[in-house]
Amino acid sequence: MENEVFKALADPSRRTLLDLLYKSDGQSLSELCVPLAMTRFGVMKHLHILEEAGLITTRKAGREKLHYLNSVPIRQIYDRWVSKYAEPWALELTSLKNELEREPNMEQKPRHVNQIAIKAAPEQVWRAITDPAKTSKFWYNCSIQSNWEIGSPFNLKNPEGKVQAEGTIISIDPPHKLVLSWRMLITDDTAGEKPSRITWEIDPHAELNGVTLVTVIHDEFDHAMHTANTLKLGLPIVLSGLKTLLETGSTLTSQ
């Protein structure tokens, strides 16, 4: 897959498409054609290559097919080929991207969608995202606390016991789906915003035995743009850390 990512990134038109989705996620083919001086068929070919490389994901919204940037592979390329050659960099808590199909009500587009394939069973992924001892190893040292019932609260606490994020359990279907309201408390800007929503979808990969496809969607953040910007940067790191923990037993970042 790494070779496919490098091949996809080599073309300037495809990099432009990624830039367009970075600026405004969830665009249709018609919307993406407007800034590019090429045919509709040409744009479709480039989008197909990006999707095959895992750099974008798609979903249906009524009659339209929407395209979403999946920044996880780029984060993995950075971790593999850039970070070890760069000077050490400090990670701040910022925060997780294709929902292939959700319930029909599609009047509001989901926005940030991250997706990653992990060589682990869905049950292992579920334990990792709900066990405080495990979340502390990939979610910026934060331990999650909840009784995991619909309507119950949850919070993420750092090692000093300070709550970094909180919310309630909206929907839960172990080990396949978890929907949370989300309020981030790490800065005054995010703490003053209304809650947004995070959805975890955990499904066996359709073609690869022993591999689980993990999709994380952040939406309903019209009144929480500081939170949205923070999660847009941080969720790929969280997902990469989750994959590293489950596949190698190691942590992605220093503890």
Automatic annotation (TrEMBL):
Alphabetical list of Pfam families matching this protein: AHSA1, HTH_20
SUPFAM superfamilies membership: Bet v1-like, Winged helix' DNA-binding domain
GO molecular function terms noted in the UniProt entry: DNA binding; DNA-binding transcription factor activity
Name listed for the protein in its UniProt record: Polyketide cyclase
Gene source species: Paenibacillus lautus
Homology family: Belongs to the AHA1 family.
UniProt cross-references to InterPro entries, sorted A to Z: ArsR-like_HTH (IPR011991), ASHA1/2-like_C (IPR013538), HTH_ArsR_DNA-bd_dom (IPR001845), START-like_dom_sf (IPR023393), WH-like_DNA-bd_sf (IPR036388), WH_DNA-bd_sf (IPR036390)
Domain HTH arsR-type: 1-89
Keywords of this entry: DNA-binding
